[in-house]
């Protein structure tokens, strides 16, 4: 196979209608096997047979239609360079010529010129025609190309309207239409570029070069020359260029542009770092783990670019509506131009002019742009705050959900056991109890043991652990060993059964003899009621204390649950844990609806049950273990997916950091986006309908149609959509 793929950035694409026209034009080119235009990123991906077509001919074809191309990796900067492009220059010249023509007409000083083949023409008319040439130069090329293929696109309709105005001698109208539509296209492109700004900022986060150590020497290399396993040198104030793992150095790294975290994250040897993040303080040596095209940031950008493939229901509705709307209005315009003069003998020029106004109103540009610009604005804004939405359909669906389901472990909780309580008895101190337990548990790899050792190292690190001798693992019970020649035990409370009263001995809540025993039993009962795992510490002769270990709930979880309920959502927790543990976590977080003992297959069944009972349901999980349940829900939301490729691929929406507080923001953003989309669609249709009615009695002129129906409506819906970019997490 000699098939090749070319990705090109397109300039001059102002709305979704332009994108459709370009896609069809490129797809018809001989040798092209597939063409896909992405309006949200203003790019085109073309697959073609190299034996039939080459890049130069492809670019020539696109530019002959009326667009400008460049490689996708080149600096974008649309909002900065837009006004320096040839389109802007020609529009400016068109405006100047139109103004000069109007000035001559107003003052009455309008000399006559002799033009080709003896024809005479007033100077103002010449200026108006010059204004038409410069104003319509770019969109008329696109329109005529589409007309040759019998396509009634936006550019075609505007071109026909201008030609019609010239035919009936309405030169001022023709020049005004050319100039105003050209201005409208520039303003639309500028507005859409603003909506794309967040995505461009993400792309710019990654440096184009990185400092690499090779053979003991430091070299600056482009990213595509750097392979996994090589060592990056990153100094304070520099951005990390590639994903990797810290080999040497300690520093704080600002991950806010990717995860939305407001506080820099401390990094030490062994920690993961990600491309695009900022090294703030220290010197770091980093072992590269991914190529430039495979970094987490590159995947995020790619997924946002591909989000347009998942169109929202509103966007599909607009596309279907426009297919019937434009031909219908064109037919009405044709009837308006012919029927009154043929049937009633009305002046042809007057009704033809009204038909041209209908031609302008038939352009569905404001309608076609109303939904995608809203989605672009919302998705790129969310990405800036560490939330990845993989399509407009998920954004719109999320705005309609009634129920949100959480997995417990690793979602509402940290998924990592930690020590919550250290209780000393019989004259010992909490520090002594923790020191003995940590010394013995340092010989074990059990998660509870690791939690105890970690607690000791974080809080009593200045006291080294004593040496352990005669270490023995007591299968299913705990461990024992000698410290300074004395035998100690750490494990389940039953390990101290010989201290229990036979009449009071129960498997989970033992009662020790005497007053001290009653106190320990009370502590034990309380800790177990809080769904904590309790470890007893003692000697061969007596217990010394209790250590409680639990999977901690996330600090923001309770507030997130309350905010979601205030938003009118039903919050449900499902977990494979036992009833006591799940009930305790639910009570702690204020969750009224929960299910315990639910296996992975059961989670899918539970989601399906909730879908039947409550309609649309969102599921929040870790994106890997909960993948089936996420797929079963209306919208699957994975959290903490930084560096987790599987979670990025499987989730509909991803929270880049382990931060549940982004969920209320996400719900509010999706609801606002739905409202904005509805407002834009309603406004566009009502504006066109109202102007259309005003054409028949002559209230709406050609200029008014383009000022209000095209330029005004497009700017209004774009400005309304850009409000979504200002919604921030609170």
Features:
49% helix, six-stranded antiparallel β-sheet, 25 helices, Calcium-transporting ATPase, cytoplasmic transduction domain A, seven-stranded mixed β-sheet, 730 residues, elongated, alpha+beta, Alpha-Beta Plaits, Calcium-transporting ATPase, cytoplasmic domain N, single chain
What's this model, at a glance?
The chain contains 25 helices and 28 strands. It is an alpha+beta fold and 730 residues long.
Descriptive report:
This protein has 730 residues and is α+β, with helices and mostly antiparallel strands. The protein has 25 helices and 28 strands. Among the domains are: 3-74, Alpha-Beta Plaits, CATH 3.30.70.100; 208-293, Calcium-transporting ATPase, cytoplasmic transduction domain A; 414-552, Calcium-transporting ATPase, cytoplasmic domain N (3-Layer(aba) Sandwich), CATH 3.40.1110. The strands form six sheets. It has a seven-stranded mixed β-sheet, sandwiched between helices. The protein has a six-stranded antiparallel β-sheet with strand order 8-7-9-15-10-13, with no helix packed on it. The longest helix has 34 residues, at 662-695. It is a multi-pass membrane protein. Pfam families: E1-E2_ATPase, HMA, Hydrolase. This is Cd2+-exporting ATPase. The chain crosses the membrane at residues 88-109, 121-140, 152-168, 324-344, 356-380, 681-708.
